[in-house]
Amino acid sequence: LLSHFSSIGFWGLVNNAGISTFGETGWLPMETYEKFADVNLLGSIRTTLAFLPLLRKYKGRIVFMSSIIAYFTLGNGIYSMTKAAIEKFCDALRLEMKKFGVQVCIIQPGNYARSTKIQPPVSAEEIWSELSEEEKADYNKEYVQERADFFNSILSEGSTNGSEVVDAMVDALTSPAPKARYMVANLKEKVLVFVCALFPTVVMDSVLSYALSK
């Protein structure tokens, strides 16, 4: 492998590491927020900084795994938070690397939970048992069960064709003119992103609130 790439040096870096979990904002302890920031955001930044001198030298590519969840959230705000942050990191990096001939690409998959197994099914009982007494006072088991069932139904609808995401990663690494962003999602997911990006926030909040009420 090294001899095959000896003529172009260190060409590509793919930042793909990520973890996911479910839970409303107050349900998760600070330690969980720190862990997610460390893996999903700072992990990619550490790797990027370590290899940046080589990537500048060989005019290579940097690919980041984001998600359409960077635009909206339906019960996994902690994951959305890290993906939105990595997108902004990429936006800054992409502009800064142009002068060196380094191209930065973002992959934005839709729901591929059944392909990646990034998110295990949610257990309402486990969530309830880990809530603080203050959270238990403001919520009830029935609500937690409803939210868990809703999130599990989303997971069960995930695509099993993970090769679509891999194809986008390969194109980002090998295309003569790679895209800044590759959105690999179904039509419904793309419509949600479109609404979120172009309509007033109140419209998106209404759409998501309606979805959550179901």
UniProtKB/TrEMBL annotation:
The chain crosses the membrane at residues 62-79, 191-212. The keyword ATP-binding does not apply. This is BDH protein. Belongs to the short-chain dehydrogenases/reductases (SDR) family. Signal peptide: none annotated. Keywords: Membrane, Transmembrane, Transmembrane helix. The keyword Iron does not apply. It holds the Pfam family adh_short. It comes from Notiomystis cincta.
